[in-house]
Structure formats: C-alpha cells, structure tokens
Write a structure and sequence with these properties.
single chain; alpha/beta; Alpha-Beta Plaits; Rossmann fold; 3 domains; seven-stranded mixed beta sheet; four-stranded antiparallel beta sheet; binds S-adenosylmethionine; RNA methyltransferase activity
Length: 403
C-alpha cells in the first residue's frame, strides 16, 4: 500500500489537536473529514484508522521513536514514523521523518521485556489504579480494550424489523450479521460510514454498541409508563426506551447540557418518536419538582469511560485521578438526587460505561447505606467484561423503591 503525503499530513494535524490541544478525537476527525470532501472512502478510512491507532498506541510508538513526555509538536511525526514501520513496514523519505531514519522502529513488543505501561500503552497512574481495583482481571481487560471495536447497529423497531433492515442495508451494499441474545442488533461485517445510507436517514437504525443496547431492556419499561432518563445526553438510551415503549406513555429526558438535548430531539424526529420531552437541568430544584413521579428512572451516569476505551482511546491520556475523584462524587450526588424521582414500588437502573468497581458496585453499595437509598433494594447487577463478551465494558444495577 502506497502512503500519500497529504493524508499523512492530515493525520499529523489531527494528532496535534488530539494529543497537544486536548481536543476530542471523534470531533477532530469529523472536522478533518468534512474539510476534505474530495477524499475517497479509502482515504477517509486511512486517516481515521491511522489517527485512532496512533492515539491508542501512543506510549508504545513514543517509546520506539525515543520521545519524551510531555510530547511537543515536533515529536508527532515520530509517532507516525513508528506506526508506519510497525504497521506498513515503510517509512517514506520525507523531511518530517528524517530524525527517525536511523532508529530501530522495527522492534517487536512481544519479544521485549518492557513494563506493561509501555506494551499496553497506558499511563502509569491508570495502570496502577486498574490493578488495584480489578486485580489480575485488569491485564486481560486492558489488552481487550486496546482492540478496535466492531460497529453495531440497533434496529429502530418503531419503523422496521431487524430482518428488513438487514435486507435494506444489503441493498445499499452493506453486509451485516445478527448477534445472539440481542434481538435488535446488527454488526457490520466491514467498517463503513453508515450515516450516509438511506436507511439511516430514514431513521431505521442507530449506531449503538451491544452493551449499551442491554441497558434499556434491563430497566424494562412498558408502554404507557412514565419514565425519566436522568442523564439522557444526546439520547442513545432514550430512543431505545421509546421504541420498547412503542411510542406510548412518556419519557422525560434530562441533562445539564442543552446542546445534547437538542441533538436528542433531532434524533427522536428521525426515529419517528413522539413520547419524549426534554428538560434542561438548571439546579436541583427543577429535579425535585418531579419527586415520586416516575415508574422507572434510568441513571446512565457520567463516568470515566474506561469500558469504552476501544472507541475513545484518547480518554486514557485525558483522564486524571482528580477527574476520577470528582466524577465519583458526582455519581453519588446524581444517585441521591434522581432516586427521589422513583415512585414507591418503581424501579431505577444505575449504569456506567466504566469497568471500575469504585464507579459501579461500590457506588451502589454506598448509596444503599445512605438516607436516600434506604428504601431501595438491589434486585440485579450486571458487569459486562470486554474480554468475555467482545462488547464495551459496562455496568448496570436494577434497584426497586420498596418504601
Ligand atoms: C454517559 S452520558 C449519557 C449518555 C446517554 N444516556 C446516551 O445513551 O447516549 C452522561 C450524561 O450525564 C449528563 N450529566 C452530568 N451531570 C448531570 C446531572 N447532574 N444531571 C443530569 N445529567 C447530567 C452529561 O451531560 C452526559 O450527557
């Protein structure tokens, strides 16, 4: 495969934004691909996949290119040089790569005795934390979290069936496979931009990982119920709740960011959903007004995102232990506040896309001991391991208000 200079320069530019200016990888790539409309689908795939792979393996490539942290702008081509040698076995004779020509970038990490922080490309503090919280499991989870995640779709059952969607996509040249135990899911055989398809524009599906597709059924909402999605964001789970409720009853989607709720409304319209109303949270008063009003409450809590590192590998370089402390405190506050919205006899699901017990089961256990949690009983818990399932790491707990 011949490497094109303009594409490699685009990768370098994207990496500068992600690694040095702290921008989010998906947003940076979206911008870069939009700016370069003339690139074909192979070029787009090259830029996106190369950028993600280098972000994922930053520490390993940095080690090969003998770079020192914190990285500077002049170091970024070193990461790219190491990637090109390791993955494509070539290093074009361009000036950006001159400083790296005489380094041995061909080393094989399996054959070297290096610390896991380098071979698994992870910051020291995070590796230590993972080991403390997960013990021996951390090693294998970490390896699995360094793989590329499959693209999984959720059929919008308000508009079509999975079989019909599969045929509609096939007619557009996209082949998919069904997944056991997930009645609405289809996995792409080959990574491709599904947002351009007619099926997507017609609202026949959403892109949603398999683990994430397990959350709304875990809450088990029924048509006609009043359901509150407390941390709705742009609505991944709210849309699924609506389809399980057959568009009947009411879903109140709440979030502290208006731009996310606006996106949710657009997605709801495309999905043909009429039973979702959005409510911007501007303080605890507006939440407390809804006390004891919901049959079911979903708390899809903000978290470290460690379970979804396959999709967002930049998160490992952006997280720090202060952020984790703050997010655990926010999770506890959110549990205390939004649990008050569950009617007597009603149910609550607390979910995260983290694999750390301190954000998951320990958070739920602490809640059950606090005043706000006293009337709740834990009915069921699910921890989804990336190693065991091949899906994103997730946690969900089902609680009932037995007041
Ligand atoms: C994990 S994300 C939700 C993802 C979303 N449920 C989905 O399926 O696409 C967590 C969300 O919680 C929101 N959030 C953070 N603090 C909040 C609070 N105090 N009340 C409500 N939402 C909050 C964040 O803005 C973020 O959108």
């Amino acid at each position: 495969m011949r490497v094109h200079r303009n594409l490699v320069l685009a990768v370098i530019e994207a990496l500068e934004s992600i690694l040095l200016e702290d921008r989010q990888a998906d947003k940076v790539l979206q911008y870069s691909l939009k700016k370069n409309k003339r690139w074909g689908s192979r070029d787009r795939a090259f830029v996106a996949e190369t950028t993600y792979e280098i972000v994922r393996w930053k520490r390993w490539y940095g080690h090969l290119a003998q770079l020192k942290e914190p990285l500077r702008k002049s170091d970024i081509p070193g990461l790219v040089a190491a990637y090109l040698i390791q993955k494509l076995d070539q290093l074009p004779a361009w000036e950006e790569f001159h400083p790296y020509r005489n380094l041995n970038l061909r080393l094989n990490k399996e054959a070297l005795e290096l610390p896991r922080t380098i071979t698994a490309s992870i910051p020291d503090w995070l590796d230590q934390l993972g080991e403390e919280e997960l013990g021996a499991e951390w090693d294998t989870e970490l390896k699995a979290l360094n793989q590329q995640a499959p693209v999984i779709l959720r059929t919008n059952s308000l508009k079509t069936t999975r079989d019909k969607l599969q045929s509609a996509l096939e007619a557009e040249g996209i082949r998919t496979e069904t997944l056991d135990d997930l009645p609405l899911a289809l996995q792409l055989e080959k990574r491709t931009n599904v947002f351009r398809t007619k099926a997507f524009k017609d609202g026949l599906f959403e892109v949603q990982d398999a683990s994430s597709q397990m959350v709304a059924p875990f809450l088990d909402p029924k048509p006609g119920m009043r359901v509150i999605d407390a941390c709705a964001g742009a609505g991944g789970k709210a849309l699924h709740l609506a389809s399980l409720m057959e568009n009947k009853g009411q879903i109140v989607a709440m979030d502290i960011y208006d731009f996310k709720l606006k996106e949710l409304k657009l997605r709801a319209r495309r999905n043909g959903i009429f039973n979702v109303t959005t409510r911007l949270v501007e303080g605890s008063k507006s939440v407390k007004r809804l006390r004891n009003s919901a049959d079911k409450v979903l708390i899809d809590a903000p978290c470290s995102g460690l379970g979804v590192l396959r999709r967002n590998p930049d998160a490992k370089w952006k997280l720090d232990s202060d952020f984790l402390d703050r997010i655990r405190k926010t999770q506890a506050e959110i549990l205390d506040l939004y649990s008050g919205l569950v009617k007597p006899g009603g149910q609550l699901v607390y979910a995260t896309c983290s694999i750390l017990p301190s954000e998951n089961q320990l958070q739920v256990q602490a809640f059950l001991k606090r005043e706000q949690g006293k009337s709740f009983k834990l009915l069921e818990e699910k921890s989804i391991s990336v190693v065991q399932t091949g899906f994103d790491g997730f946690y969900m707990a089902l609680l009932e208000n037995q007041v």
